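seq as requested:
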Amino acid sequence: MSNLLQTFEKKQIEKLTGKKRIPTFRTGDTLKVTIRIIEGDKSRLQAFEGMCIARKNNSVNSNFTVRKLSHGEGVERVFPLFGSIIEKIEVVRKGDVRRAKLYYLRDRTGKKARIADRDRGDEADEYAMIEEDPVQESSSNENESSVETQQETANEVKEVEAVQDKQKEESSEEPQVEEKKEEAPAEESKNKTDEKS
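struct tokens:
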């Protein structure tokens, strides 16, 4: 049952990340998260830039917490990683930390709250954008896979039948060989008796 659930969650993740890219980021990185805000009939984009202090990886339910200082007051916001409100995520700086959760930054202000930079090089996106429609791909893949499975099963059936036919032929040949062996010693004994007499 867990395998079925995992496959379903993978399909949902592919569906949710098909139209956007999610970069690889960790705690300690400074992120710029662009959010779509809908107000009545209108929608607008708003950026929330701050440090990622926590990240929870739980397949579809993954989320991350971003903290920033706004007018001297600390503001934290928890975003769902695969949420539809998130337009894009950008990594502004990469931080060098040894912890998974940076909750200690809540008590610090100013220079004490700084995190050293670390150059990790160019990292591939965690979830890259899929350019084609995943629905069309999945339907065509299902059709192709169903045809391929039918062909494979037909080939396997043919191979099994061929093996069974060979076994039948071998089993029918073995008694004939044994009969010849039985007849051969009798004929040899007759020949020996004829030679003696």
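Residues 134-196 form the longest helix (63 residues).
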